[in-house]
Specification:
The protein is α/β, with parallel strands linked by helices. Helices cover about 45% and strands about 15% of the residues. The strands form 2 sheets. The protein has a 6-stranded parallel sheet, sandwiched between helices. Helix 1 crosses helix 17. GO terms for molecular function: hexosyltransferase activity.
Length: about 375
C-alpha cells in the first residue's frame, strides 16, 4: 500500500515533439487528479547528450534525404524480440543515469512515452519492484515497445491490442485508451481563438502543418495552388524551421488569405478554426486532428511508422494520402466540396477519436497502482 503522496516518473525522448507532448498531457492529467509529484525525464539527453544530439540529427536528416532507407530499417526491425542483441544494447543506454534518477526521485511508478526500455533490465539488476507502463504513441507497433516486464500497455486502437496479444502480451495488460493529449483539443472556438487569424467566413480553412521541425516537403507549392482558388484560405505552421518560415513569408506573406505561423503553442486553437488538415502523420498530430474532428490529408509520408499511421487511418476512411500537389488538391476538392462525403468522414472520425485518453489512462493507473486497496496491497511492492 502507498504511504504519502505518490510519485510518478515519465520517461520520454526528444525525437520530434510528440513524445514530450504526450508526457505533458499525462502530467497535466495527473495534476488534475490530485497527484502533483510528477517528474519528466529525457533519459538519452541526460545520460548521453552528445550521442542524443547526433542520433536526433541523423533521425531528422533521414526523413529529409533518405526516407526509403529509414523505412527499410524500421520495417526490418519491426518484429524484433526483446531478448535480441540489438534491443539489449539499445535498452542498456542510460542505465547508470536512470539508476541515479530512481534513487533520487524514488518513484512509485514509471511511464514510458518512448520505447527506451532500460527499466526492465534495471529492475532485474537491482531487485527493485516498480510498475512499468508503456504509452504507445503511434497507430503502429514496433518491437521496441514490447517487453514482458512491462505491466500495462495503453494503445490507440483495438488492432494494436491484438498485435500485442499476438506478440505474447496478455490481453489483460492492454487497455485501448487512445493517445494522451492536452485537454484544449476538441473544444469549440472562443473569441480569443478567433482573434489568432482574421479569417474569411465564406472560405474553407485548410491547416497545413510541417511538423515541429518543419520537415514536410513541398509546402510552398501546396499553399500557392490552394490560394489560387477562390474558396480556400490557408493557415501554415512551419514549426522551428525558420528558413521555411522566411521563404513562405517572402513569397506568400502579403496574400490576404494566407496566415503564417512558426512554432506556436496554440495548435488546438488553429485546429478549431480549420475545416481540414494537411500534415505529416505523427501519432500525436493525427490524434489531435481526430479529436478536433478534422479530415486528414497526409502529404508524402515517410516510410516507417508515419506511413503506417497514415495507411491505418486511410483504411478507416479518415485520411487521404498524396505524393504530389495535384493529387492532394484533387483530394481536398473532392472532400470539402462534397457535403455527403464530408458527413461520412465525420462519422468515421467519431468512431475512432478518443478525446478523454489522458484522463482514461491516469484514472486506470490510479485505480491499479496508486490507490491503497486490499486487493492490491498484498501483490504490489513499491518504493
Amino acid at each position: 500500500m502507498l504511504s504519502g503522496s505518490p510519485k510518478v516518473l515519465i520517461m520520454y525522448a526528444s525525437y520530434g515533439e510528440g513524445h514530450y507532448q504526450a508526457s505533458k498531457a499525462l502530467e497535466a492529467s495527473f495534476h488534475r487528479s490530485g497527484i502533483t509529484d510528477v517528474e519528466l525525464l529525457d533519459l538519452m539527453a541526460e545520460a548521453h547528450p552528445l550521442l542524443n544530439e547526433m542520433t536526433k540529427f541523423v533521425y531528422m536528416q533521414s526523413f529529409k534525404t533518405m526516407p526509403m532507407l529509414y523505412g527499410w530499417v524500421y520495417n526490418a526491425t519491426k518484429d524484433l524480440q526483446p531478448d535480441t542483441s540489438l534491443l539489449s544494447v539499445l535498452n542498456s543506454l542510460g542505465m547508470r543515469k536512470l539508476e541515479q534518477a530512481i534513487a533520487s526521485i524514488e518513484p512509485d511508478l514509471i511511464i514510458h512515452t518512448f520505447p527506451q526500455l532500460a527499466m526492465p533490465k534495471l529492475l532485474k539488476k537491482t531487485g527493485l519492484k516498480l510498475p512499468l507502463i508503456n504509452i504507445v504513441t503511434d497507430f503502429d507497433l514496433h518491437g521496441r515497445w514490447v517487453h514482458p516486464g512491462v505491466d500495462r500497455y495503453y494503445v490507440a486502437t483495438e488492432e494494436l491490442m491484438q498485435d500485442l496479444v499476438r506478440r505474447g502480451i496478455p490481453a489483460e495488460r492492454v487497455l485501448v485508451s487512445g493517445i494522451p493529449l492536452k485537454p484544449d483539443f476538441g473544444r469549440s472556438p472562443s473569441m480569443a481563438t478567433e482573434q489568432l487569424c482574421r479569417l474569411d467566413p465564406s472560405r474553407r480553412t485548410i491547416l497545413i502543418m510541417a511538423g515541429a521541425f518543419g520537415v514536410m516537403q513541398g509546402i510552398r507549392d501546396i499553399c500557392e495552388t490552394l490560394l489560387a482558388k477562390d474558396n480556400y484560405q490557408v493557415i501554415a505552421v512551419c514549426g522551428r524551421n525558420k528558413e521555411l518560415h522566411r521563404k513562405l513569408d517572402q513569397e506568400l506573406g502579403q496574400h490576404p488569405h494566407f496566415h503564417l505561423f512558426g512554432y506556436i503553442s496554440e495548435i488546438a486553437q488553429l485546429m478549431q478554426l480549420s475545416h481540414c488538415i494537411v500534415t505529416k502523420p505523427g501519432g500525436i498530430t493525427l490524434s489531435e486532428s481526430l479529436v478536433s474532428r478534422l479530415p486528414i490529408f497526409v502529404y508524402r509520408p515517410v516510410p516507417g511508422q508515419e506511413l503506417n499511421n497514415a495507411l491505418y487511418l486511410e483504411s478507416k476512411g479518415i485520411a487521404h494520402i498524396a505524393n504530389d500537389p495535384g493529387t492532394l488538391i484533387r483530394q481536398i476538392d473532392g472532400l470539402l466540396l462534397n457535403e455527403e462525403r464530408l458527413a461520412h468522414v465525420y462519422g468515421e472520425i467519431d468512431l475512432v477519436r478518443r478525446p478523454e485518453a489522458a484522463k482514461t489512462i491516469v484514472n486506470d493507473i490510479i485505480e491499479q497502482w496508486l490507490t491503497p486497496a486490499p486487493s492490491l496491497a498484498g501483490s504490489t511492492s513499491l518504493l
